[in-house]
User: What shape does this take?
Amino acid sequence: MLLLIAVTSKNEGKQCTMLENIFGLILKEIRSEKNISQEKLAEFSNLDRTYISLLERGLRQPTLTTIFKLSAALQITPQELIHKVYESYQHAKK
Amino acid sequence: MLLLIAVTSKNEGKQCTMLENIFGLILKEIRSEKNISQEKLAEFSNLDRTYISLLERGLRQPTLTTIFKLSAALQITPQELIHKVYESYQHAKK
DNA sequence: AAGAAATGCAGACTATAGTCTGTGGATATT
DNA sequence: AATATCCACAGACTATAGTCTGCATTTCTT
Assistant: This one.
């Protein structure tokens, strides 16, 4: 399990939320465990490669459809993905 | 459990996806079970009342943040919410 | 060390999420 | 029946998700 560092990054004055960061970290973690590149994940999920990068860096957050696409590509259920995010989020809120 | 009818509704030529519809139906179901109005749900989740309506009719889909807000307001975990959506989605795909 | 692969980044763009206002129809309450 | 509550709907708007291109930097492989 990742050591969570609550990093706040800046994007043109827009402050990323903790949730977006956590989602990104979890996404990157799972992708790495599956040993696939962002490019492969993008291909499998039918999303743009650079968007995967944006997600992992917490600069974007996914919609429902994107969550379903990503989890399918990672071969986990969307609830598993969200559960991991939720757990980290609850932990980080303490 | 709702009897799922795969209804495709139109919005200015934009076709709603099955997933958006299913999310909307599940959201409405849970809200009704909790016996609260759209207005109350909107208030508890800090979202716009008309947007709750749009979601329930499948005319919009939520982002991650919105999923977390809604589930908190409904007093369920986000993974529980997504799980229900996933189950219905898998069922409807057959 | 060189080359290939992977990823970050900026900029511009399209598509759509989310808000707000006003109005009217449907349903519930009195 | 009258009134209150609930919700759909249209229209306009702001904010942001997601795409695409080009290029730089980093990481990995040989």
About this structure: Chain A has a mean pLDDT of 88. Chain A touches chain B through 20 residues (CB under 8 Å). Chain A has five helices and two strands. The longest strand of chain A covers residues 10-11.
